[in-house]
Design brief:
- The chain is of the alpha/beta class and 271 residues long.
- The protein is built from 11 helices and 10 strands.
- It folds into 2 domains: 1-96 and 178-271, Rossmann fold, CATH 3.40.50; 106-177, no CATH class.
- The chain has helices spanning 52-60, 86-92, 114-125, 130-143, 149-154, 162-175, 192-209, 220-226, 244-249, 254-261, 264-267, and strands at residues 13-23, 26-36, 41-46, 68-76, 79-80, 97-101, 180-184, 212-216, 229-234, 237-243.
- A hairpin with a 2-residue loop joins β4 (68-76) and β5.
- It is globular and about 50 Å long.
- The structure holds adenosine-5'-triphosphate (ATP).
- Adenosine-5'-triphosphate is lined by residues 22, 28, 46, 48-54, 64-66, 218.
- Belongs to the ABC transporter superfamily.
């Protein structure tokens, strides 16, 4: 299990009574409140439809079609995002707040070599020469477990396997050293062995760069392995939030107990 990182005491993110609806009068997020410290990893678990994706998309200011903020606040580094214009919010995306999702790899540009799009992404946010950006990209691809990163830089996405594309997309998001990485089931399309590897590499990359992560997963074992704290969602509410060890050894909510009982290797730790 990872430990808490980041030295400053100011908060990275605060959610205050956040509510979101897609349909009038039917909230998909209900009064969700919590805060994150810099460098912290929070795992968000819960059943399908409980609002996990809505929660992290809300932080990015990119709700799925039809979604509306109906109450509350999101504060990022002491700045209230919900009161800011979309333009201010846009300035945060990519560099300060980045997101990876289940099929990020499939969004790589198919008609440009990986190296060209990777270098351009880096240089759009960081003051670097092409050579420096190339070196940083190769280094990060290697940290994400890609065996021959120079070759990866020279090929098109169609020449990479699904796992390699996903690792590449995750590396690209992490390269910019965002303060917050929003990860929505980033490895669930990969086979189990690859999932574990990519999760460990991602966690190491975040630790290297002091990046905080909000990790949405349906897999309690993944959350227990990766996160400093675990939050559990049921029907749009955050019904439990606590240190990982406390949540898995002494869950307070019935639904958390049910989730833990479904994970054989954690079952013995649940009282
Ligand atoms: N674009 C949308 N339009 C209408 N309703 C939506 C939309 N996106 C999500 N919802 C509804 O909001 C609720 C929360 O959905 P959300 O996708 O956030 O849950 P989730 O916990 O991430 O689910 P899953 O694990 O299946 O991805 C669900 O009832 C869902 O049907």
């Amino acid at each position: 299990m990872t430990s808490l990182r980041g030295g400053t005491t100011s908060l990275l993110v605060e959610m205050k009574n956040l509510s979101v609806s897609y349909k009038e009068g039917v909230p998909s997020l209900r009064d969700v409140s919590f805060s994150m410290k810099p460098g912290e990893i929070i795992g968000i678990v819960g059943e399908s439809g409980s609002g996990k994706s809505t929660l992290i998309r809300a932080v990015l200011g990119l709700l799925p079609v039809g979604g509306r903020y109906t109450g509350g606040e999101i504060v990022f580094r002491e700045r209230v995002l919900l009161r800011d214009s979309q333009q201010d919010w846009q300035g945060m995306r990519g560099k300060r707040i980045a997101m990876v999702f289940q099929d990020s790899g499939s969004y790589l540009n198919p008609i440009r070599r990986i190296g060209s799009q990777y270098v351009e992404t880096i240089r759009a946010h960081l003051p670097m020469s092409r050579k420096e950006a190339w070196r940083l990209a190769v280094h990060t691809l290697a940290r994400m477990g890609l065996d021959d990163p120079e070759r990866v830089m020279h090929v098109y996405a169609s020449q990479l396997s699904g796992g390699m594309k996903q690792r590449t997309a995750i590396a690209m998001a992490a390269t910019l050293e965002p303060e917050l990485l929003l990860a929505d089931e980033p490895t669930s399309a990969l086979d189990v062995t690859t999932q574990n590897e990519v999760m460990s590499q991602l966690s190491r990359l975040c630790a290297d760069k002091g990046t905080g992560m909000m990790l949405v997963t349906h897999n309690m074992a993944v959350a227990a392995h990766m996160a400093d704290r675990i939050g559990v969602m049921v029907d749009g509410r955050l019904v439990e939030l606590g240190d990982t060890l406390r949540v898995i050894s002494n869950p307070t909510h019935e639904y958390t107990r049910k989730l833990l009982q479904a994970v054989p290797e954690l079952e013995g730790e649940c009282t």
